[in-house]
Amino acid sequence: MLGILAQENSGIYPMSKNVAALLVKLGLGQYATAFEENAIDWGILADVDQETLKDIGISAAGHRLRILKAFADLKLDPNPPASSLHHTGDSDAAAAADHDEDITAWSRTPGERKPVTMLFADIVDSTALTEHLDAEEIHELLYGATRRMGDAVESNQGTVCRFMGDGIMAMFGAPVASERHALEASLAALEMQRRIAEYNQKRQAKPEMAIQIRVGLHSGEVVVLEVGDDPKKPEYDATGSSVPLAARMEQAAETGTILMTAATRALAGDLIETKLVPSVTVKGISEPVVVYQLCAVHSATNLLAPTMRSPFVGRKSEQVQFRVMLDSCLEVGHGQTLFVRGEAGIGKTRLVEGCRELL
Q: What is the CATH number of domain 7-107?
């Protein structure tokens, strides 16, 4: 059973953190925010049922069943001992240490706030698709599809957070910051569709057995968490309101389409082509969410074309420094290295392109 608390340098985590830890352990950490926003803590988990999970936005029946089974297996005590809720000395620290093995790395590692684009994608009607297949055939089919989806993420500078049976959750812009995370996520979504189409051709799938996917994107701030126990191969997860909103975009998308919020559309700018579709109602948000369908991304050549970029203004002192370095290189015949650093979103990429234009 998961412990009620875990000790860190910053103090004692409340019970709600253990709910999140449990969800992460189940591979369903994307729902941690939904539990927190609806004030579902450890003390009332025993009262959670199918309708409760539906009300907080968990639409997948399989996910609801896995959560309820885990809650039942825990035999939860609604009134944990008071000593487990307050730090009173070394005895509590020792008790917390006893629980440490059951607390996931997510609970022990502090997160970092990052601006990202979240991506959710899944196979449409996967249950019907695999109805007449045995377990090995189902695994091979879904593994082949989700692996290609993951490859599309990684080839566009994204990070796969987790595979979810017939779907995938990924983020762009973390753990390595990128000013183009909305564009990279859009490219990945389109590449997913292409790779799945090629997979269907390779399988020579009949129309009724062809795999089709839907994708949802949303850009915003999340807390990026390092999970897993292997320091040589870190894995990452994300939490925050941006995560379920991206998942909602995926749920609202029709077969074979890619939906994104206005936040992602604005960040990608003129580099993508979209069309406005009916707004989507999202639980917890008072106004309907404006939604766009992704149609295309401009070619790599166009992405770098000066005409596609905003005018280069300001940065006079940086340009002077670069000109001095350039003059020195031309005079002495030796190259120099220029190191540009700064927070994500302040225009480093545009500055470097401006220097290229001076060349």
A: 1.10.150.50
DSSP 102: G
Domain covering 112-298, topology: Alpha-Beta Plaits (3.30.70)
Structure tokens that stand for 234 in this block: 């870190």
CB atoms within 10 A of CB 102: 15
Give the integer Cα–Cα distance in Å for 184 and 209.
30
Nearest by Cα to 71 from 98, 101, 35, 96? 35
- Strand 158-163 and strand 112-123: pairing? unpaired
Cα 238 to Cα 112: distance, rounded to the nearest angstrom: 9
Count of other CB atoms within 10 angstroms of residue 12: 17
The residue extents of the domains of the chain are 7-107, 112-298, 309-358
Q: Helix or strand or coil: residue 198?
A: helix
- Whether 119 and 158 have beta carbons less than 8 Å apart is answered as yes
**Most confident range, picked from 40-54, 82-96, 212-226:** 212-226
pTM (predicted TM-score): 0.59
